[in-house]
Amino acid sequence: MNKMIVIDGVDGSGKGVQTRRLHQTLLNSGLPCILTREPGGSPGAEQIRELLVNGEPDRWDSMTELLLMVAARKAHLRETILPALAQQKWVISDRFADSSRAFQGIAGELGLDTVNQLHQICIGDFRPDLVLILDIDEQLALTRAEARGQGEDRFEKKGVQYQMKVRNAFRDIAASDASLYRLIDASGTIDQVSTQILSSVNQAFGLSLQLAEA
Question: How far apart are CA 144 and CA 88, in angstroms?
């Protein structure tokens, strides 16, 4: 019963540590699993990632961002996700298609129809089995993201108002389909957030995963 689980949300919400922890938890339980990310997750997609996450905020407009994102996602799906699922592995991904809906579709003002039409053309009907949206105050998230100091900060440079739009977009997306999305309060400690995530995963798939060490 291999599945794809996505953890998504604003920059600085803790997606990186939570995807790594969930990946390790699945491995500890004996479930074969890969950890991947977007933009990126395959050799070609990682090259596109460099274009998207570095440079000045106005380097690309929203439509160019979307086209680059979808090109990376197509490569990611073909080269990494589908082969892993075919090998009966679970897939844990830091971001997937809802990031395009939130960042380019809503915050970037392209509209969800445009994003969804391009997604349908390039990705088709494929979708994850569970999407966990990490929800956190946009100013706190931005402060956390800036504190990392690891570069790849093009989207953070768009400022707190942009991050607020992204957060609200993710909240609306999470509310749109209770069978697919779970909204997770990401303002607590790593353990508190991980506990919420495991509860949602266990409930969704009938598992009894135990928390891995941070």
Answer: 35
